[in-house]
Each structure stands twice: as C-alpha cells, then as structure tokens.
Design brief:
The protein is an alpha+beta fold. It is built from 17 helices and 14 strands. It has a domain of 197 residues: Alpha-Beta Complex (Sulfite Oxidase, Chain A, domain 2). It has a five-stranded mixed sheet. Strands 7, 8, 11, 12 and 13 form a five-stranded antiparallel sheet that branches. It binds the ligand Nc1nc2c(c(=O)[nH]1)N[C@H]1C(S)=C(S)[C@@H](COP(=O)(O)O)O[C@H]1N2 and molybdenum atom (MO).
Amino acid sequence: MNKLSRAPAVHDSLAAKLSSADDRVLLSHWLPPQEGIIPRIRIGKRWFNMLWALPIAFVLLVAAVAVAQALRQLPDVQEWLVGYPGAPASVAAVTSGFPLWLRAQHFLNLLFMAFIIRSGIQILADHPRLYWRRDCTPGTDWFRFQKPVPTGRVWTAKDDSVTVPGWLGLPGIRHSIGLARWWHFSVNLLWTVNGVAFYALLFSTGQWRRLVPTTWAVFLNAASTALQYASLNFPPDHSWTQYNSLQLLVYFITVFIAAPTSIITGLLQSPAISNHIGWVGRVVNRQRARSIHFLALWWFLLFILAHVTLVFMTGPARVSLNMMWAGVNDSSWSGFAVFVPLITLVALLWWRASPFTIRHARLVQKTGEFMIGWIKGFAEWWSPNSQLTEQDISPYFWPNGTTPASAEFDGLVATEFAGYQLRVDGLVEHTQSLSLAELRTIAKQEQITTHFCIQGWSGVAKWGGVPMRSIIDLVRPTADARYVVFYSFADGADGGRYYDVHKLSNMRHELTILAYEMNGGPVSVLHGAPLRLRCENELGFKMVKWIAAIEFVADFADLGAGQGGYNEDHEFYGYRMPI
Ligand SMILES: Nc1nc2c(c(=O)[nH]1)N[C@H]1C(S)=C(S)[C@@H](COP(=O)(O)O)O[C@H]1N2
Ligand SMILES: [Mo]
C-alpha cells in the first residue's frame, strides 16, 4: 500500500517538527490515570447512585419469592399451572441434543463476548456519559460515571475520560480507546460471523425450534415458568430436548433482538454511516444509538448472570455441563473435562490481553487494521450527505485537543490572523500561499453537520469555509499525489506536531471543507482558528484544527511514526476512521 518507490520526498518544512512514537504504550508518557465515580443514573433532576440497585433488587427478589410462594398455595393458581406447565404441548421437541457445531459456537460466543464487553466498557470510559440528544450538553446526560462537567475552565473531552480497572477494561488504561476499538471491532467481526453461521445452522437443522416461539401460548407458559422459578420450586428441566417458555423467550430476545440491536446501534455511531443514511441517522442519532447500545449491554450482562446462575442451580451442574460442553445427557464427568480446560483458556486470555496490548500496541493496531480496515475502506467511499437545520445546532460543543502554544501562533492571534498564510504544497502543479482574505474570495460553502468524536460525544454546528475541491482545483495535484497531509500549529499531547493524513479521494467529498466560520462567526481559537478541517465522513481527530500547511504526498510512511497522523502514531488510532 504505502510503498516507498521513490527517493525520500522533500516535505513541507513542518514535517521536521513531527515526532516519532513508540510501538508500545509508555505509561510514563500516557495521559495520567483519573478515577471516575460509581455510575449514576438521572431520574428527572436527581442523580441516583447505581449501587442502590443492589438492595432494591434484593428486596424485590425476596418480595417476588414471597408472593410467588403465596400464589402457589391458591387452588386456582395450581390449576392454572397444570394447564400451562411451562412449555406448550404443541411444540415439537428437538431430538438431536446439542450437536458439536452448536457447542463449539456456544463456546466461541462466550469467548468473543468476554472481549467485546471488556473493550466496550473501555470505549465508554473515554466519554463516561450517555445522552439521548445528540448535542451532549453538560447536564443533559442520563448516565455517567464521571463528576459533573466543571465550569469556569476549559474542560476537554480528553480531560473527561476516566480509568477503568485493568481486569475489567481492555487494555485497562485511561484514554486507550484507540486500542480498545481494535479489539472491539475485530472481535465483533468474528462474533458476527459466528452469529451468522449460528443462524444458518439453526434453521437448517431444526434446532431453531428451541429458540423461536411458534405459538402465543409461550407467553402464558413463560409467566408460569417465572412463577415456578420465583417460588423456588423449579419447573422440571427438559433442556436436552426442549427449553421452557421463559428460557425460549429470553434466548430468543438475546439471539434475535439484542444481538442485532447491538450491531446496528454500533454501526449507527459511525460518522460515515450515520451521515449517509438520511433520516435513520438523524432519528437514531449517535447518542441514542450509544444509549441503546449500552442498554443492550445490560441485557447481555443480566442474561449472563441469570444464565450462569440457573445452570448451576437447576439440577446437578455436572448434568447441565454435559449437555452444552460434551453433548451427552448423562451424569458422567465428560462435560467437566471439556469445560474446565476451555474456561481456563478464557481466563488466561482475559488475564494476558491487557498487558499484551500495552506491550504490543502497534501490533494490535496493525492486526486490527488487517481485520477490519477493508470495512472502513468501504465506508469511506460513501459520500456523507446528511445535513441538519439551524434548529439542530447544539447549544454546547465539547472542545478537544491541545491548543497551540507558540509565540508564532500568539502573534497571529494578536493580529486576528492578518499575517496568516496557508501553505499548500507538495505534489502539486501550483504551490499556493493563501491569506485568509484570499481564502474568503473563494466561493464559501456552508453546512450544518454532526461532529463525531472518537471518544463518543457528538455536537452539531454550522460550518462555513472553502471546499477542499476548490483547493484541489487551484493547486492541481500531480498524478502521483495520493494523500493529503494537514499540519497544525499545535503540538499533540505527547509532544511533536499534530498532523493528520487523508486519502485524496476523501478530500473530494461534497462536505469536506476548510472551515473559517463556526455558527455564523469566525471559528474561535478553541475550535481551530484560523482554519480547521471538516470532513464529515470521519471521526473528529481526523479534522485537524489550527491548520498551518497542507501538503500533497504520494506516501506517508516517512512522516512522524508513519501511521498517517498524530493520534495514529501516538494513540494507535487507524488512519481511516469513518467508523
Ligand atoms: N491540531 C489539533 N487538531 C485536532 C485535535 C488536536 O488535538 N490538535 N483534536 C481533534 C479531536 S480528537 C477532535 S474531537 C476535534 C475537536 O474539535 P473541537 O475542539 O472543535 O470540538 O479536533 C480534532 N483536531
Ligand atoms: Mo476526538
């Protein structure tokens, strides 16, 4: 892909200010840890500590047991239970037990879910708040495990990120979303392939009858089973051939509702997808998608808790393990013999995954790129076209990144950028040096769009500026120009200049502009004055703020650490980030 076929290029003078980066996470250079708080949920105006859920759940469970036991004393209820014993008589049982493919897929699902959940929690910790509205205005969150946003100072999204414990998060250090995403997306792909194969095998073998309701009677039977469980007098277990109706419904929801919902709401958080699919992306905006994604996580967590508890509570665990791990319906130890080594393997991988990721961060980045880079390539190809209206402009727009700290930049700010010159050079026929006044003479494009930060927040603003297409027409890139480098006036968080690389084709999308206006006025220094990139099919970090120069290149391997941008070099992000 990035072959260095020619002699090293002579780059823009700013290229000398880029820094190389380590292939490991060096904790001494990393964003220092920051504790979050116990998760809180907002109901109305009040915030509740989620630990309250534990005593409340306990009281509710005890009450449910008391009520269920009382109900089962009533003759009418006993009669009703005879009519609805827990599984509709009309539903045919499955006689083939649990075949090897099913057992293998069950194990793979367990293995993949472990890493999906861990990396997902890590991703959430990079913006530890959830909202229903896409503007992410402080105070409108409904869930958080971070303090309220401080006022009276600039508080960036990075400032807001928190550490999750290393045994839980993957890789368990603060602001490691770049690495967590490679895990999350790569394993998601494996999980989805496993899931699709599972659907196909289910429906081609008759095993689907275990999981798909075929009569309305399942609902009353499920109520009956729930009552029997709650009374602590469990229904007889026929799992080998047929699940009871409660199991059936819960498995159905897990396999056919929660799983697809997670995949869809995951994809809807992507700028390229959300901005390409019209009203769907506007109605299920990024924050709604994120919140629903999180609720789906809770479904899975509660499912796992209940599932594992019941496996070990209904009858001898040995027998249950035999069914799903050895495929036999007896009371031998064969299930144990399979289960113990495999669960030990999962535990071992769980234990080593974070240290491995920290030590071999570049390898994780490269492997992730290999696994899912092609999907990102497809998404980048789509032209983002979704725009919003003036009413949608967010009252608040999170700031992010490290502002320029140089006498040169301060001097420009003091003269309101009167002396600013944008250099556009590299592999072009007509090198340019353009003042703001000259940029303003080029036909202005305005767009009201959603910003998608990799960390999870979003915000809507109206941007005005010069389409990159106009710049391309002006400079006329040569035939070997394939990428466009944006150099900033600002350094990145770990020293060295902030920069980022885009494919030239991405710069030709309708909504790619160099913005000098935000919400009708000049863009503020905080948000990237005098010029910042808007490229609506990418995540926020690809939109360089405080642009000093633009360079057209054939290859970017010789810039910085060669990964295509500052965060790509230093935080192991991908250089194509439409998802
Ligand atoms: N020069 C520079 N540009 C940058 C950054 C940065 O740290 N330095 N941060 C990026 C990130 S991560 C995001 S989300 C957006 C944030 O833009 P905003 O501050 O206008 O919200 O700017 C991007 N551009
Ligand atoms: Mo970001």
